[in-house]
């Protein structure tokens, strides 16, 4: 007899939904990043922080989906390993097909199968959007745990105060909740997890082009503080 799945209901629903749409999602989003210069710029800035502050350790794309952003970061030639983690086996399989030279693993951001301080950077690009408010501190605590001192974390998400619920996507039945949040609130929760916020960006929604949006977009860059941060000493500026 199969053992019951111990994962929370929202994890099981999100996994099933993305398994159902993996192929269609890969086709639909394949050229999305090419149409978004601001996002490419934010990712480039994040990647530079990984190179300068990550100590040569790997960069994890947590909630990587079909691996399109993982692949983009790899193509930047950072000189560190870039790999992806996703909840849905169907998405991981699609990522492996689309990016055969990269490593992709199944996993949850609520309990990352990674040693403490093992990452030189962590990207959560529109993946915390499916985590309920009550579980978000747990995810951010995991981010803090797996990042090396000084290593950056970059988040992308939709901005708003009310969640969006979908029961159909790309012709498939799904059960997905998109938690929209204010950037300042996300920054506050990151600080509560012990992370140092470096930048908060809000972009108004794009209603034109091939990827029209329903909501504004938010981005927060933070880092795990360095060992010596907060220990006093001279300040510049």
Protein traits:
alpha/beta; globular; 7-stranded mixed beta sheet; two-stranded antiparallel ribbon
Radius of gyration over alpha carbons?
17 Å
Strand count, sense and barrel status of the largest sheet are: 7 strands, mixed
Number of strand segments: 9
> What is the mean pLDDT?
93
Strand order of the largest sheet: 3-2-1-4-5-9-8
Distinct helical segment count: 6
Helical content band: 25-40%
Q: Which structural class fits the helix and strand makeup?
A: alpha/beta
- Give the SSE order as H and E letters: HHEHEHEEHEEEHEE
Q: Please report which band the strand proportion falls in: under 5%, 5-15%, 15-25%, 25-35%, 35-45% or over 45%.
A: 15-25%
> How many angstroms separate the termini?
64 Å
Shape, please? globular
The residue ranges in which pLDDT falls below 50 over 5 or more consecutive positions are 230-237
Protein name: Class I SAM-dependent methyltransferase
Organism: Streptomyces rhizosphaericola
Pfam families: Methyltransf_25 (PF13649)
InterPro entries: Methyltransf_25 (IPR041698), SAM-dependent_MTases_sf (IPR029063)
Q: What's the layout of helices and strands?
A:
Blueprint: H1 9-29, H2 37-53, E1 59-62, H3 68-75, E2 82-86, H4 89-98, E3 103-106, E4 121-125, H5 136-146, E5 152-158, E6 164-169, E7 172-178, H6 183-192, E8 196-203, E9 217-223
């Amino acid at each position: 007899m199969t053992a019951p799945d111990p994962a929370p209901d929202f994890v099981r629903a999100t996994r099933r939904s993305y398994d159902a749409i993996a192929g269609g999602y890969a086709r639909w989003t394949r050229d999305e990043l090419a149409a978004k210069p601001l996002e490419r710029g934010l990712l480039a800035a994040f990647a530079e922080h990984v190179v300068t502050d990550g100590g040569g350790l790997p960069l994890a794309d947590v909630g990587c989906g079909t691996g399109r952003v993982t692949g983009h970061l790899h193509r930047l030639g950072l000189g560190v390993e870039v790999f992806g983690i996703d909840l849905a086996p169907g998405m991981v399989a699609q990522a492996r097909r689309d990016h055969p030279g990269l490593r992709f693993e199944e996993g949850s951001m609520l309990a990352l199968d990674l040693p403490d301080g093992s990452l030189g950077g962590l990207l959560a690009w529109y993946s915390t959007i499916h985590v309920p408010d009550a579980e978000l501190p747990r995810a951010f605590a995991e981010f803090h745990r797996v990042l090396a001192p000084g290593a950056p974390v970059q988040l992308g998400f939709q901005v708003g105060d009310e969640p969006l619920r979908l029961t159909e996507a790309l012709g498939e039945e799904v059960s997905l909740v998109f938690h929209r949040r204010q950037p300042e609130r996300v920054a506050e929760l990151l600080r509560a997890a012990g992370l140092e916020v470096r930048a908060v960006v809000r972009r108004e929604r794009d209603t034109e082009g091939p990827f029209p949006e329903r909501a504004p977009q938010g981005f927060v860059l933070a880092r795990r503080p360095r060992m010596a941060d907060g220990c006093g000493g001279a300040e510049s500026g």
